[in-house]
User: What shape does this take?
Amino acid sequence: MRRWSERRQAVLFAVLLVVSIAGVYGLAQALQAPEVPRKGSLRASLVVEGDAWTVAYEDALTVNNTAFGLLLEAGDRQGFEVRWTEYTIPAGVLVTAINDTVNGEGNRWWQYWVNEAYGRRAADRQEIFEGDVVVWRFVASQEGS
Amino acid sequence: MDPSGAVRRLLGDRRTIGLGVLLIFLGVVGKLALLRFANIETVFVATLLAGSLLGRAWTVLVPLGTLAVLQPFAWGALYPGYGLEDVLGITFFVVTGFLFVGLVGRTVRRRVLLRVKSVALLTSISVPLTVAFDVWTDIGDWYFLFRPEGIDFLTVLYWQVPFTVYHVLSSLLFVPLFGTMFLFLVSAPTSEREPEGVADASEESG
Assistant: This one.
């Protein structure tokens, strides 16, 4: 079998590498939740259930049509702090603390439900609609329920 | 002054020591610079290159040195609030996972020369190694964080899929990039070592 020169091997490797990176990058992009475009105003409710406290922000007229946006709005209006980490890959925010209750305490994390359906994507990528109820709970990691 | 005796046997010549420290620097700074990019990180490539290019104690020192900086930072600043048992347990899986990566790199060390095939070899093994590392650390996450909540291991693996895709992407980007750079640095001839390959003549084993 004919041996390929180092240059040919380099070109072949570079081509294979670029194709592989493009393929994996495409797969990564396909797994991303899309950005939520701003729409008109809507009415939605939000409840935050902390360790031994609850905040309700009900029937609010809002233009913030994501689970995260509504939380920030509620925090701003009702005077509690929200902390989060913003990721570029995968794109989205991870809420790390609400009202000084920080992720990890007692193996519990901030998670959200929309109309009692568990939020399976970053909260800023979860669109909400007219009449939706968003609940943030500080509970052990879970899916469904 | 060149290190000698036991230190030289353990760490290699001055250039090897310099490159080992540079790999630790790469692992730490790269990881911190890319914090916003989940699983796009440089600890994996630093560890793989330490095992496959430097060998010796660097196979262990690079992952341990890197994680000695990053783990306290992670648990103190990024993920505060976890119990000591969870922190120690998950750290165990992360450290042993990277040690495994370094040791696998060590097994291909004799085949790694400044050639395209070497970069291709390192890049190729980095993909299954990345997946194996993620599965291994998932076992730790499941055992310490999710099992107590009644969540099964397959669910944890399912949640991991997009993050592993990013981790593979990270390896495909960084292993050829830094692999080529470090292969060049390791193989460049100096007065104190053989020019034709990366194997240090003074190394006793492997």
